[in-house]
Design goal:
170 residues, single chain, Rossmann fold, alpha/beta
């Protein structure tokens, strides 16, 4: 018997939920991809936990502090709540080997394509990974999905995220 009881949809952030502008950390620079908020709501309505998994090397590079990323994620959830949607969790990797902030400038085991952040979320939310999905726009996202044992769904920028999710998740 499987002790995990929840299913999840893991979303990459930059290039999937929002237009990928390098080192995005300010709300005023955030632009949702087509029907991204509706895709999150669709997953919420189906009973999936919705969790963001994102690499944020701008922290290690000294472009912005972790608090900017956290503030942006709070803002995202506020905008999602306008349509009755929400993110259950957001996990990010602040590390990069070429970083300039010493505490983040290193090799780590949480940067995608590593599945560590997915595993952390699965433990925190009691998620059955075999019944879950990872939606992302990059090869690293699809490799992370494979490494975590979840079904990968490749999103192509500019298309309706809602349509992609509806075609693959029921």
């Amino acid at each position: 018997m499987n002790s995990k009881k929840y299913k999840a949809v893991f979303f990459d952030r930059d290039g999937t939920l929002n237009v990928d502008t390098h080192y995005l950390h300010l709300m005023e620079d955030f632009i949702w991809t087509p029907e991204a908020r509706q895709a999150v709501k669709y997953c919420n309505d189906l009973g999936y936990k919705v969790i963001v998994i994102t690499n944020q090397s701008g922290i290690a590079r000294g472009y912005y502090p972790p608090s900017d990323v956290m503030d942006l994620h709070v803002w995202m959830n506020q905008k999602l709540s306008d349509i009755g949607a929400h993110l259950d969790g957001i996990y990010f990797c602040p590390h990069h080997v070429k970083g300039t902030i010493s505490r983040y400038a290193r090799e780590c085991d949480c940067r995608k394509p590593s599945p560590k952040l997915v595993f952390n979320a699965a433990q925190d939310f009691d998620i059955d990974l075999s019944a879950s999905y990872f939606v992302g726009d990059s090869d690293k996202d699809m490799e992370c999905a494979k490494n975590a044992g979840v079904t990968g769904i490749h999103y192509q920028y500019g298309k309706s995220l809602l349509k992609i999710v509806q075609e693959n998740i029921r």
